[in-house]
Amino acid sequence: MSLVVVGSVALDTIETPSGKVCDALGGSAIYASLAASYFAPTKVVGVVGEDFPQPGIELLQRHGICLDGLETKQGKTFRWSGKYQNLNQADTLSTELNVFADFSPQLPPSCRSCESLLLANIHPALQLQVLNQIESYRWVACDTMNYWIDLCPELLTEVIRRVDIVFINEDEIRQYTKSHNIFSGARKLIGLGARAVVIKQGEYGSVAVFDNDLFFAPAYPVEQVKDPTGAGDAFAGGFMSYLATQSDLSKLAMRKAVRLGTVMAALNVGDFSVEGLTDLDTNKIDTMIKELQEWS
Amino acid sequence: MSLVVVGSVALDTIETPSGKVCDALGGSAIYASLAASYFAPTKVVGVVGEDFPQPGIELLQRHGICLDGLETKQGKTFRWSGKYQNLNQADTLSTELNVFADFSPQLPPSCRSCESLLLANIHPALQLQVLNQIESYRWVACDTMNYWIDLCPELLTEVIRRVDIVFINEDEIRQYTKSHNIFSGARKLIGLGARAVVIKQGEYGSVAVFDNDLFFAPAYPVEQVKDPTGAGDAFAGGFMSYLATQSDLSKLAMRKAVRLGTVMAALNVGDFSVEGLTDLDTNKIDTMIKELQEWS
Predict the structure, then answer these.
(1) Cα dihedral B187/B192/B193/B197 (nearest 10)
(2) Record: contact B295-A216, CB cut-off 8 A
(3) pLDDT score recorded for residue A273
(4) 8 Å CB contact of B204 and A204
(5) Mean of the pLDDT values across residues B94-104?
(6) Would the pLDDT of B86 be above 90?
(7) Based on the structure, what is the number of domains in chain A?
(8) Which residues of chain A fall below pLDDT 70?
(9) Cβ of A217 and B296 within 8 Å?
(10) What is the residue range of A25's domain?
């Protein structure tokens, strides 16, 4: 009942109205894996440089995350630096790809056949490369971003054709499908082959479109958003870790997966870097999921 | 089990990306009353000029709306003209107050004691004038807008102190309470004396804050928004008409009221002026309410 996450591993320097952190643990694979680690055995596939801090490795190990697929290469770890003027959109100050520039994901044997695979936000060509290595998976999902929709929409289309679930935000689905109405947009993605589309709407929550059905989930209210980085990754990680335990994409499974993703995203944005996702009390998570259900 | 709506009655000229209408039926009291008329006997209090079209009167009568409180004064009916560049915000092109300039709402005896009173969006001084005339009401609600929050926040505070329910949109609650977090803002309004605050979030739906509880409702998906004018009024009218039939502001009543308001708002924006609210099949409304519940 395990989940494999393939994505970026980064050291982030982030400034928000609430403060600043330097070279803090980040990257789509890290946010997603940590969020997932509470609900299903999680394996991460990514690349780091020789400078990747040992406490970061220990944190992942403490969360039981399997690091067979985490390659260490000569050179420095991928670095991203961004500043949030408001909490909706980061301005990228710098990107140093470093060892991530030549990332060529190789699934170790232990990652070729599991229940859930999350292709977190990386180049669609790399997502395809992973899809070509998998043997048997029950659920495969992809996330993406505006940058790839601009740069290589055809490759992204190839990915969407081959996955079960697409995570995408409302601006991105409009950009990719050229449909102003997000529901029409979702139907186009389903027409390509996806079984479910989960549209993220930031502070307003998300809506899942699947099997001629809809499920709306509000965002879990957060007193103070300190750092929105990784919210979508935490959502997708939480979501896919729940699906790893399910044999059907039932209405009920979809609802629970969305709520679980929603709560992990809320916990994530309440603190900087991955602080909001580490060493959590699972009772607290359960209570939040119940509250969310109660409120909608 | 009846509802009284006090507000503006207008002839609107509206242009949106979907088309244009001239001197069409509008105003907060009209949108709210028509939406309410499907669920509770509804009485409208407002003023029109001698030029108010007879088909408009007949439409209200056909919906069983009591017009005892609709005064006809010498002069022309209030006119508003607006253009929507996008569907979130209208640019006002012209406002001719006409007979509305001297509107001084007088409740006829039949409107002084009912179940529900909606003080739709008009000057808070007029809302207070109505509050000074009522004798016995179970539920009193007010709506408002950014213009009054700018112009006379103290008068609005007086209104909020004296009502049970406040309808307000997310920008307005931030503006009025100076709190970025809408939930903290709602708690401030509750601190002033309101029992429930319903925060409208446009295409994202709404959230009701009451009795240390929350209820999130998504917007009902609309294929094509033709004219967003009156969406908030239709919401409030639908909401308050349901409360007119309820003796308690229970969790269940609040949920049903919000869903009913949500569906009436969706029906309203699907066509120009009040076209989306007229001569509706109540089975269709019931189905939409059930769908909304099913999807969240």
Answers:
(1) -40
(2) yes
(3) 97
(4) yes
(5) 96
(6) no
(7) 1
(8) none
(9) yes
(10) 3-294
Q: Is B113 exposed, middle or buried (0-12, 13-18, 19+ CB in 10 A)?
A: middle
What's the pLDDT at A87? 82
Residue with tokens 């993220």: A200
Contact A50, A79 (CB under 8 A): no
Give the Cα separation of A125 and B166 in Å (integer): 52
Mean model confidence pLDDT for chain B: 97
pLDDT of B88 above 90: no
Window from A198-212, B79-93, B276-290 with minimum mean pLDDT: B79-93
CA A49 to chain centre: 22
Chain B: nearest CA to A121, how far in angstroms?
Answer: 25
Q: How far apart are CA B5 and CA A166, in angstroms?
A: 46
The DSSP-derived string for A38-92 is TTS-EEEEEEEETT--HHHHHHHHHTT-EEEEEEEESSPPPEEEEEESSSS-EEE
- Give residue B290's pLDDT: 97
Q: Which two tokens stand for residue B291?
A: 């769908």
B181, B184, B214 member nearest A295 (Cβ): B214
DSSP H helices in A109-169: 124-131, 146-151, 153-161
Of A201, A218, A223, the CB nearest to B181: A223
Give the helix/strand (H/E) hosting B81: strand B79-84
Give me the pLDDT at residue A88, please.
79
Q: Which amino acid, one-letter code, is at B211?
A: D
Do A107 and A133 touch, CB atoms closer than 8 A? Answer: yes
Interface probe, candidates B170, B171, B214, B251, chain A, greatest A C-beta count within 10 A: B214
Q: Flag whether the pTM goes above 0.90.
A: yes
B chain contacts of residue A221, beta-carbon cutoff 8 Å = 183, 214
Distances from the Cα of B172 to the Cαs of A49, B147, B203, in angstroms?
A: 49, 9, 16
pLDDT at B158: 98
The pLDDT score that the predictor gives to residue A89 is 83
Instruction: Supply angle C-alpha A121, A127, A133, rounded to 5.
Output: 145
What pLDDT is recorded for position A154? 98
Tokens 């049903």 belong to residue: B256
Q: What is the CATH number of the domain that holds A239?
A: 3.40.1190.20
Q: How far apart are CA A144 and CA A119, in angstroms?
A: 9
Residues contacting residue B171 through CB under 8 Å, at least 6 positions apart: B146
Note the ipTM here: 0.92
B85 band by pLDDT with thresholds 50, 70 and 90 = confident
pLDDT over threshold 90, residue B107: yes
List Cα–Cα distances, B279 to A225, B176, B221, B238, B242, in angstroms.
46, 37, 21, 15, 19
Q: Which residues of A touch B (CB under 8 A)?
A: 181, 183, 201, 204-205, 207, 213-218, 221, 223-224, 295-296
- Angstrom distance (rounded) from CA A263 to CA A273: 16
| Residue B260 near residue B238 (C-beta atoms within 8 A) | yes
